[in-house]
Amino acid sequence: MTFDWVFFRQTAGAVLAGIPVTLCVILVSLAAAYPLGFFLAVGRMRNGRVSSRLIAVFVSFMRGVPMIVQIYVIYTVMPMALDAWLRGIGSPLNVYDINPLLYALILFAANTTASFSEIFRSALTAVGAGQLEAALACGMSEGQAYRRILCPQMFRAASANLCNSTVDMVKNTSLVFYMSVRDIMGIIKTEAGISYDFFEGYTLAFLLYLVVCFAVQEIYRWFGRKPARRRVALERGRADRAAY
Fold first, then answer.
1. CATH no. for residue 220?
2. Which domain, by its residues, includes 149?
3. How many domains does the chain contain in total?
4. Rg of the Cα atoms in the chain
5. How confident is the model over 194-220, as pLDDT tens digits?
6. CA–CA distance, 130 with 153 (Å, rounded to integer)
7. Residues 120/38, Cβ–Cβ less than 8 Å
């Protein structure tokens, strides 16, 4: 078996059109998951409310059901249900004209939000409720306590798990081609299916996802080093002032 370098180079050029789609899914999911995951985590920790139970059901569904099943529900069942409802109310809107990328964005944003909410909840539990009570006793509002005291500690405790969850999400974006989205994997599958050069196509997919996942890990590592550098600078400043 010989490696078809011509197909590899041609497909690599075609895949450039799919990289922005994959990055769009990743960035939109993260932009939604960080704030929504935090608020869901805080809501989940407020025990005894109906909202916390609804959040628990949502998180359990998104984390417990395989991604391929979620894709089937979002991309197949939901449009059918919406179409039946719109026909019932006499709406002229055609659900099947909606860009499938929208369904992919909704699904991955919801899935990532559920994962991040559990990570944030665990990190907030590690920080401890006593610090919130102490901040409130000092006259801070709850928002100020979270912003100035709890959130910085929460992000430090959660950074490794957030990185792992983001990498998992990046790898799962390879499934959006099941939703007819022409992302990296969708273009590779289409091109390889024409000439049956699947080995070359999957090799290209392996390299591209490896690069993206490595970039994600480096970004998280860079952000993780910033607080450490800031703490070192503050300690040096205190030492210098004490010396004088």
1. 1.10.3720.10
2. 5-243
3. 1
4. 23
5. 888 888 888 999 999 999 999 999 998
6. 13
7. yes
